[in-house]
Amino acid sequence: MSRSSIAVAPTTRPDMHRALSSAVLRGGGVIATDSDTASGLIWADPAAPSAFRSVASTMPSLEWVQLPYAGIEPFDEHLSDQYVWTCGKGVYAEPVAEHALALALCALRNVAAYHAATSWTAPIGTNLLNSRVTIVGAGGIASSLIRLLSPFGVDITVVRRRPEPIAGADRVFAPEEISIAVRGARIVFVAAALTEKTRHLIDAEALSAMSPDTWIVNVARGAIIDTDALLDALETKAIAGAALDVTDPEPLPTSHRLWTLENAIITPHVGNTPQMGLELLAGRVEANVARWLRGDPLIGTVDLDAHY
Amino acid sequence: MSRSSIAVAPTTRPDMHRALSSAVLRGGGVIATDSDTASGLIWADPAAPSAFRSVASTMPSLEWVQLPYAGIEPFDEHLSDQYVWTCGKGVYAEPVAEHALALALCALRNVAAYHAATSWTAPIGTNLLNSRVTIVGAGGIASSLIRLLSPFGVDITVVRRRPEPIAGADRVFAPEEISIAVRGARIVFVAAALTEKTRHLIDAEALSAMSPDTWIVNVARGAIIDTDALLDALETKAIAGAALDVTDPEPLPTSHRLWTLENAIITPHVGNTPQMGLELLAGRVEANVARWLRGDPLIGTVDLDAHY
After folding, report:
1. Which member of A115, A151, A283 has the closest CB to residue B150?
2. Domain residue spans in chain B?
3. Which of B112, B125, B151 lies closest to A151 in CB terms?
4. Which residues of B, range 226-285, sit inside 8 Å of A by Cβ?
5. How would residue A1 be classed by pLDDT, with cut points 50, 70 and 90?
6. Angle, helix A93-108 to helix A140-149, in steps of 10 degrees
7. A57 pLDDT more than 90
8. For chain B, which residues score pLDDT lower than 70?
């Protein structure tokens, strides 16, 4: 048995199997042709956790399992300290942050509206450069977003539960202070987890603290914004607009008023598309295979006690 | 006469006169009420160079003239070493680079197309993160763009006349090597000056070296791209698309085929809008007034020999 022999299974998603097999090879591994030899297993179908036991049982040398997504819940019944487990945590925040920046720039620079035009029209647009932004949330997406914003010279306010300062943020407010935190922001980015504390955090009161220059960008969960209050703010131009990759309800029904508003930009939850995710997961797999062969610590190791 | 006495003229553009007068005050200057005392003159109307001589002739103490734009051609007949001249060069690169990034992200993330949709549709989009880009040009816009791209982990190829390396670029090619330089690029940014060497630099041959995944983003001058060749490439989907803030002809006539193509995003030369420009110019004026009062070197000094 060689440590370089890595199995990729199951084969139920051929595109994923192919991409992750290539990643194993790029990382310096050998695809296990005999299940007896596999020291590592790259699980290649997030939708097939039930097949795990029968596959793993054919691999007496198995020491390490790489799971495909950030969330490990589907594999709960299999998790044990028989193996080292790694997952996709941290992989998917970057593209969501990129999408948030894309929406913000597209909004401020009026690109979507210009794309709808069929003639050369008047100059409209404001800079993100040197402006003020507020980021609701302080997790992986917020960190990635702060990193992407770093060359823009923006003043950054973060809204988070714990009051500790954050690298790259100019100040931190608590969720209860949301109406202070959004004041003067050109963009309010929503990048928090949906919890009972953040549900409808952006309500009529918070919206009324924003200005007619403020755009809201939501890449987190639709229900963090009170959709009815948002519709009012958009229709009365109390805020400049909303660019939403997530909505409440979601998917947004075709008859919904949000589709009809010029100052609403809707994208269908594509902060991290399956195609992007696969590319990013492949990068993680490549890196982890290379680390495994060298005996270096793996990235995204699952903490079985913390269940994360 | 005091060095702090600064004139702002003419008054033909009240908004500009007001903004630049405020900038003089913020910089620590005093607005000259008596033209005899003015040591500096902030020229406040780019469209009125012909008025320059009569205004300046009333200012016997005048030593320094700040011109409003990067291009100094309209003031050619007045330029002489009688005064120190400064202009807006370098001021306008940052917002243009921001617009280039906005167009690139909007294109890769399919935002403009989604904005045109009226229902929840399938996931489309690719990452700028960790991709390959090519930047045609190595001036102020390219430098600013490289800076804005720095957190994205992109591989950057620059196309420039002189073969010297550039900070932040992974490699440099000559304009003659354009077809090699664009190979494998997810985005080809056009950010060069229009010269006889760059006119139609992006021609049918260069376009054929790009891939069906490549987007072109032009924020420089329309004629750097051969529009007819571009139309062919867009219609045959030989490239993914073009996001153009400048066109040839410009303004783009309403009947032009580019307006009808789904994979062409057109914005009407708004990389730097008058509103943005005035804000940025005011910042430059403020800085230069403060430097003038302290006797520090001014920013954007015109080299009368190099005529730039």
Report:
1. A151
2. 5-91+274-294, 93-266
3. B151
4. 251-252, 254, 259-260, 265-270, 273-276, 279
5. very low
6. 50
7. yes
8. 1-2, 307-308
Q: Are B275 and B92 in contact (CB under 8 A)?
A: no
Give the distance, in angstroms, between the CA of residue B245 and the centroid of all CA atoms in the same chain.
Answer: 11
**Cβ count near B58 (within 10 Å):** 13
CA gap A96, B26 in Å, rounded:
40
| Cα separations in angstroms, A92 against A136, B4, B121, B255 | 18, 55, 21, 43
**Closest C-alpha among B272, B271, B247, B273 to residue B261:** B247
Distances (CA, A) of B186 to A86, B122, B220, B263: 31, 21, 19, 15
Closest chain B CA to residue A95:
B127
d(CA A282, CA B166): 31
**Fold match between domain A5-91+274-294 and domain A93-266:** yes
CATH class, domain A93-266, is: alpha beta
pLDDT at A308: 67
Strands (E), A98-195: 132-136, 155-159, 171-173, 187-190
A3 has catalytic annotation: no
Instruction: Indicate the helix (H) or strand (E) that contains B242.
Output: strand B241-244
Active site residue A269: yes
Going from the C-alpha of B166 to that of each of B139, B155, B158, B172, B220, the distances in angstroms are 10, 13, 8, 8, 19
**CB-based contact, B167 to chain A, within 8 Å:** no
Q: Are B77 and B56 in contact (CB under 8 A)?
A: no
Instruction: State how far residue A220 is from chain B, nearest Cα, in angstroms.
Output: 16
ipTM of the predicted structure?
Answer: 0.83
Task: Please tell me if residue A153 touches chain B, with a CB cutoff of 8 Å.
Answer: no
Cβ-nearest to B270 among A94, A124, A275: A124
Cis previous bond, A10, omega within 30? yes
Rounded to whole angstroms, the Cα distance separating A254 from A251 reads 9
The pLDDT of residue A184 is 96
Global confidence as pTM = 0.84
Smallest CA-to-CA distance from A92 within A236, A201, A212, A191 is with A191
CA A101/CA A242 separation, integer angstroms? 13
CATH T-level topology, domain A5-91+274-294: Rossmann fold (3.40.50)
Comparing CA positions, the residue from B246, B182, B191 lying closest to residue B215 is B182
Q: Kindly state whether A25 is in contact with chain B, defined as any CB-CB distance less than 8 angstroms.
A: no
Q: What is the mean pLDDT of chain A?
A: 94
Minimal CA separation from B91 to chain A, in Å? 13
- Phi/psi of residue B208, nearest 5 degrees: -70, -15
Residue B33's contacts (CB-CB under 8 Å, 6 or more residues apart) are none
